[in-house]
Amino acid sequence: MINVKRRLSEWLNLEQKNLNEISLEDIEFMEVEEQKVNQEVAELLSFSNRGNRCGNKDVPQADSIPCKSFWVENTRDLVLYVWNGDQSKTIIVPQNGWTIRDDITVH
Questions:
Q1: Alpha-carbon gap, residue 66 to 45, rounded angstroms
Q2: What count of other Cβ atoms lies within 10 Å of the Cβ of residue 1?
Q3: pLDDT digit string (tens) for 9-25?
Q4: Euclidean distance between CA atoms 24 and 36, whole angstroms
Q5: Residue 89: how many other CB atoms lie within 10 Å
Q6: Which residues of 49-62 are buried (b: 16+ CB within 10 A; e: fewer)?
Q7: With bands split at pLDDT 50, 70 and 90, how would you rate the model's confidence at 50?
Q8: Res. 43: pLDDT tops 70
Q9: Beta 78-84 vs 87-93: how paired, if at all?
Q10: CA Rg, the chain, in Å?
Q11: How much is the pTM?
Q12: Percent of the chain whose predicted confidence (pLDDT) is above 70
């Protein structure tokens, strides 16, 4: 697996230290942004499944796909990197499109 943080910092022209990993379980999306993220993920799944055919049958879709998430130090934007097989997508959610859940426990 590639070093996601390094690659994202190169693509977004950010220093790695400005990308702070955060668990998706700790994030709450605003409704509109959640719909956009879901649509992007659905497109990635759809695109990846086009090439996954055995005869006339589709290979079953996974229930979820891997995702790494980071918030950007200066802008507070959220950067999601999702992948499925050899296909990947970077999704940027603006700072007003997400928040940290208020029902989490910090250890």
A1: 11
A2: 6
A3: 999 999 999 999 999 99
A4: 15
A5: 16
A6: beeeeeeeeeeeee
A7: low
A8: yes
A9: antiparallel
A10: 15
A11: 0.80
A12: 79
